[in-house]
């Protein structure tokens, strides 16, 4: 079955290079050399890899070409930031080399860039540059009005910083927090032309801040489009146990999700986005015990407070156990 007809297909690492001290770039192609389906700006792919006893499922944005010349690339370009604890990204950094085999999905376009907007403000922080960079390229090719803010500790730690500056020129502002502190996001929004739409990717607290500022300025919520990077995994995470309706226990490690652990254990599940956005994996909770660490963007605040459901693709137990209504 070809890559164009199957959601997941065999792939191989074709290239690897260091972007920063903690970030590597990988070029991944179809193992049989077949053409890859087109990836829109802002799309991502899912990688399935690792040892048979503990496979990883991780999603990474498709970076695409770094310049304006040329057509679609014969590989998927992604950037992977090494996390502080041993988990999927650490496995990739330690084990992925040219020739490494894995499985990848077709492009998933959940963070699409709309056309014909009066002005677009792009905001990227840290590794959040990966879906924003192809948006920058797309806006330039379209001849659309835009500005961009790229936030990081220092330029040396910011992936693709030179590529972004070369593409965007004076429309791009590189903000190094080690030199000038945190950017004034209220001032950033206040300086935008009327009707500006914002596309933002980075840490959750920064996105929440931009949304709150936009609300205070009476911007329609639809004008803020965002993607939270790596909502399912945090350095401080601990493992816990899931008790199924049958009484069976499933161990969920610090570097995995409930969904990954259930799939590895052969438990039937439903899922799609694996990012806490679509709600397909929403599961009833029989006993939240010490509470739920909700990390989705699907449930409302009221629904989270009820503590009777969670998205198993990214949310976690606060304590050591949680009971779910699943066989």
Describe this structure in words.
This protein is of the alpha/beta class and 327 residues long. Helix content is 20%, strand content 29%. It is built from 8 helices and 18 strands. The strands form 4 sheets. Strands 4-3-6-1-2-5 form a 6-stranded antiparallel β-sheet, with helices on one face. It has a 5-stranded parallel β-sheet with strand order 9-8-7-10-11, sandwiched between helices. A 5-stranded mixed β-sheet has the order 13-12-18-14-16.
What would a concise description of this structure say?
With 327 residues, this protein is of the alpha/beta class. Helix content is 20%, strand content 29%.
Please describe the structure with a list of short key phrases separated by commas or semicolons.
six-stranded antiparallel sheet; 327 residues; alpha/beta; 18 strands
| Overall pLDDT | 91
Number of strands: 18
- Series of secondary-structure elements, N-terminal to C-terminal: EEEEEHEEHEHEHHEHEEEHEEHEEE
Structural class by helix and strand composition: alpha/beta
Span from first to last CA? 32 Å
Helix segment tally:
8
Major sheet: 6 strands, antiparallel
How much strand?
Answer: 25-35%
Helix proportion: 10-25%
- Described by the principal axes of the CA atoms, the overall outline is globular
In the sheet with the most strands, the strands line up as: 4-3-6-1-2-5
The value of Rg in angstroms is 20 Å
Poorly predicted residue ranges: 1-5
